[in-house]
Amino acid sequence: SVPYKTILASVEDKTPAIIRQALDKYSKEDTDSHHYLLVVSIQSKDSNHPNHRQERRVHDEESPLKIKNDLADGDAQVSFHLQPKNGHIRTTRSASAGQA
């Protein structure tokens, strides 16, 4: 099993479209995308906090690629994780957003 998939995205693409693409990449075309959410994970590269990671849900109206671009100038590693909705955030699989 591949731990992550790359998705082509534009800053115009909102979270529901990214979730649908990720499910399609994992051959889950028949899966209802409303049962999943996207989480952004931000890993600090700051020497004062080498293992500091923040995670939060990416809301439907947000653009994951815009989030990644906005954070790219900082000193952080950004990844996105698709996971089933179950009331708490936990990392499952990663999806790297790339520009279309």
Would you mind describing this structure in some detail?
By secondary structure, the chain is α+β, with helices and mostly antiparallel strands. It is built from two helices and five strands. A five-stranded mixed β-sheet has the order 1-5-4-2-3, with helices on one face. Strand 4 (76-84) and strand 5 form a beta hairpin. The longest helix has 11 residues, at 15-25. Mean pLDDT is 81; it is low at 91-96.
Q: What is the percentage of strand-forming residues?
A: 35-45%
Kindly report the spatial arrangement of strands forming the biggest sheet.
1-5-4-2-3
The total count of strands amounts to 5
Content-based structural category: alpha+beta
> What distance separates the N and C termini?
25 Å
SSE order and pairing:
Layout: E1 4-9, H1 15-25, E2 36-44, E3 53-58, H2 64-72, E4 76-84, E5 93-99
Parallel strand pairs: 1-5
Antiparallel strand pairs: 2-3, 2-4, 4-5
Keywords:
100 residues, five-stranded mixed beta sheet, 20% helix, 37% strand
How do you describe this structure in short?
Helices cover 20% and strands 37% of the residues.
